[in-house]
Design a protein that fits this description.
CATH class of one domain: Alpha Beta
Structural class: alpha/beta
Strand content: 15-25%
CATH superfamily of one domain: NAD(P)-binding Rossmann-like Domain
Strand order of the largest sheet: 3-2-1-4-5-6-10
Length: about 290
């Protein structure tokens, strides 16, 4: 039985709701963080903190010493470079190396991406994300891999929210995604640590509604009650042009290009049956944001 879970990436956009759900589910949670004081302001109770980073194997080992389960929530950042230390390459290798030595570890859960699973392009960021899936599978430790659709939390982050305006990316395609809330996903993660059915399994994670980015942005704006929000379009072509001069914008435009041109079908029935059906629509998420 898994009682103690170590989280790597607890203070990220999705790491926060997942970690909160693990605590709610009754697990003893340890988080590897760079800044414990900052982390304590996010998780005032229920989480033990180990100060460290992914390039420090000793700190990873310390965070894992009592772990029965491990949840990994890491991603490449806009400032990361292809030929330098990367969380999803060298960082993941360090995690796997230390996980193999952890005396009690029974299960690794990895946050991947609906987009990464079948990625066929040549952008190194998604190639790294896709390769992390295979490295987890080859670790020899029972695994659970999650492939979530677009997260509703994007509408509360600086990526799409600027003051009282929600920006969606306008492109020549209008594909839909099954938007999921981090809270619902967190319950899926917690349930995956409670059942042997989730061992050595891979789960597409999707929400209740299939919506374009514009439709989802409008529903969030309609449901948000703290202030009136407007919705505006930001052309993908303009973003790509700005990326010529701004590396961070180039990263975002590449990400949006992969997201917008992805054709997503519903594949989450197994996750709904085994790990729980999502409860939050975008309107409900907006009301509690």
């Amino acid at each position: 039985m898994i009682k103690n879970i170590t989280v790597i990436g607890a203070t990220g956009m999705i790491g926060i709701p997942v970690t909160k759900e693990l605590v709610k589910a009754g697990f003893a949670v340890t988080a590897l963080v760079r800044n414990p004081e900052k982390a304590k302001s996010i998780f005032p109770v229920g989480v033990t903190f180990v100060k460290g980073d992914l390039d420090n194997k000793t700190s990873i080992a310390e965070a894992l010493k009592n772990a029965d389960g491990l949840y990994i929530n890491i991603s490449t950042r806009a400032e990361d470079k292809e030929n330098q230390f990367n969380p999803e390459m060298q960082g993941l290798d360090n995690i796997v190396e230390m996980a193999k030595q952890a005396p009690k570890l029974q299960q690794i859960a990895l946050l991947s991406s609906f987009l990464a699973r079948n990625y066929q392009g040549n952008w190194w960021v998604f190639a790294a994300k896709k390769s992390s899936i295979e490295r987890i599978k080859k670790s020899g430790i029972p695994y659970t891999i999650f492939y979530p659709s677009n997260f509703m939390e994007n509408f509360t982050s600086e990526g799409m929210r600027r003051g009282n305006k929600i920006n969606f990316i306008k492109a020549s395609v209008n594909n839909k995604a099954w938007w999921i809330a981090g809270e619902d996903f967190g319950r899926n993660v917690a349930n995956a640590f409670k059942t042997d059915k989730a061992l050595n399994q891979e789960y597409p994670i999707q929400g209740q509604e299939s919506l374009t980015m514009q439709e989802a942005a409008q529903k969030f704006a309609n449901g948000y009650t703290k202030q009136q929000l407007s919705v505006g379009a930001f052309p993908l072509g303009m973003m790509k042009f700005m990326g010529i001069f701004m590396p961070s914008m180039k990263f975002v435009s590449n990400l949006m290009n992969v997201m917008l041109f992805n054709v997503e079908t519903f594949e989450a029935q197994k996750a709904w049956d085994e790990l729980g059906k999502p409860q939050l629509t975008i309107e409900k998420f907006a009301q509690q944001a």
